[in-house]
């Protein structure tokens, strides 16, 4: 393809953002020179929905159209569905799926929960539990349970609390990782190299008197941002990074221009540097994290399949929340089918713009021209018509031959 043809194809690419509220997505598409369409009834190549969509929406796609959601991603993105699917696999492969904490779905699993409470294991343990609304987000409605003597009043999941989290500067943290499902048949999963390390704003303690302090136990930025002063960023140029020990092939040097951090957020580059400096095998940590992601997506992938011969193409950007414990074991906290693209800071803007551009590059590479599809369909229609006429003519010729033979016999 010539440069001119590429530019024409680029400028003719149309994206429907009628269901998208995030300014950064509008800005990235505008910078790429793509046409933004605000009405779903108009012609478009790609449509972006902030929320999940039913399978009927997928099946309405034309072959040249793409959508940023697969059907039924709720099987891993809704807390109660994720718990049920994970427990099904844990029963068959307990060691392979040990990265998902002990969980009960309330109220459907009240009998199992009561049985667990009566068990010897629970009576000996001093474990905390945490309840999460099945449809909750941004930390809303989450609370720690000092014991299981009382049950919540709303549908939720009750999960064993990871009480020995990795602490950095005395604070709890987790990883928001962006995972792209490019295809489900075959299953193609991509882990983006940019993510966010999120911190609680209060130093961690297991003292029971702090059990209700959400800014100590939850890392959601939407909760913690109200309890810190206005964020100031520390920029560290790559050229100025000093490695305290030889690399020895464990951790590749950075190729990015800067590493950003605040009191509540780090880039993954800075996090990797921290792990390297405390002599952690960074490659093994990420190998274990990748194992968690692959198995989790596999659990839900069978529910996401659809008939591609009748519809366009789907892809998905998932937000995986992973927590490391004090032994650097990764735990799956939850999966978000519509991760936030809000940009409250320079760090957010850099990471999310890079993520979106990489996603749009992948999507555009497999884009199919409507003209090509319609031309192919016309050719196929002509072939079918030709074969139908040929078969009809052959049938008529056969009738004539038989009638001629019959009349000759008489």
TrEMBL record:
PROSITE patterns: TTL. It comes from the Eukaryota. Pfam families: TTL. GO terms for molecular function: ligase activity. Keywords: ATP-binding, Ligase, Nucleotide-binding. The keyword 4Fe-4S does not apply. InterPro entries: TTL/TTLL_fam (IPR004344). This is Tubulin tyrosine ligase. It comes from Aduncisulcus paluster.
